[in-house]
Fold these 2 entries.
Entry 1:
Amino acid sequence: MIGHEHTENGNESGITEDVIYNVLKECYDPEIPVDNVNLGLVYGVTIVDPWVGVKMTLTTPGCGAADWIADSVKKRVLEVPGVKEADVRLVWQPAWNPGMMSNEARKKLLITK
């Protein structure tokens, strides 16, 4: 996976990067049976208590489900105890490629490196 960005300032509510990444593993592109984290779509999480920002991409800029995916990620992050605000920023650089997937994702999709 691409290097994760992380900022944690004044975190008093117990919101951690691990907690956020775990809930992001529950979010999927509706057409791909692998979660967004293992697909390599999540580029970074920023925590400024009680706000959480997620920087991510999609497998293609023309994805018809882009709004749905971003909204579902935001809704799921907002369900984390202590999170009061959440933002999801879709970025296109670096462009996603299959090499960003975890080994687990490659096995599930039967892709070899």
Note: Confidence is low (pLDDT under 50) at residues 1-10.
Entry 2:
Amino acid sequence: MKLLITELHTLPLDIKERLENMGLKADFTDGSVEIKPETYDVVYGQLPFRTAPYEQFKNLKMLQLSCAGTDHLDIQRWLKDGILISNAKGVYSAPIAESIVLGILMSLKQTKTFMVQQENKLWKKHDLRELGLLKVLFLGTGNIAFESAQRLQPFGCWLIGLNSDGRAIVPFSLTGKLSEVHEYLAAADVVVNTLPLTAATRHLCDAAFFQAMKPNCTFINIGRGKSVDETALLAALDTNQLAFAYLDVFEEEPLKPESPLWSHPKVFITPHNTGSGQLMPERNYTLLLNNLQHYLRHEPLENAL
């Protein structure tokens, strides 16, 4: 069995030895060299399918994705062909959760305002807020929301999570149905979108969504850009409906230079970057090695699709 590994930029010292101990031969590529797709049984990452058509991977049996979201990939076709597929759910959750906490604190402590004041050497105080007893509403209760909620618990805020059926999830104080989101928006001080992109979530955050929010709410989007109507978002920012927005994902990426979001005083932007962290390669390799063991033992894969 032969393995192709791409997109992992940091190589743990013992990874080749560990693969050899499993009886696996692996090629590592950054996409700059030509590969022979038909020689690989297992592929890690999406990069090979950008340089060689899927049809050329004639012997592919297992695919370990480097991403959690799959809306941009032809997953259903691959599954119909009998390919075993696992995504990277949970790999990026910890650093994203830290960024969510950062975004909330930036809003409550008016960090952008103080940064501008520092640049202009302006000494001016403001009324700030603290997280205690504020209501933080998560759209989605998956790994990212779970990791975020765990980190927010010590601040003493109310943690509310919405999912498909309202099932209880620890550590949320309250859970509800996503279909009833408008009933929760009026009470939320912070709204965090962690949802994947589906037909149901496309432009979920539209004009009616923002109008239902509590005035001067904080909005954070690290889910999918296309779940937010950016025209409606800008309208909410230009009023007192939103006090602050932390945006890591956008309807079109890269975000166009002419977008008014870049220069909006209430907006903090990161370029789809919150999943980055020095521990990410180790989590990726751990998941890959675990799933290779499962595959060799004919066991179900972790994060199987």
Note: The chain has two domains: 2-91+277-296, 93-269.
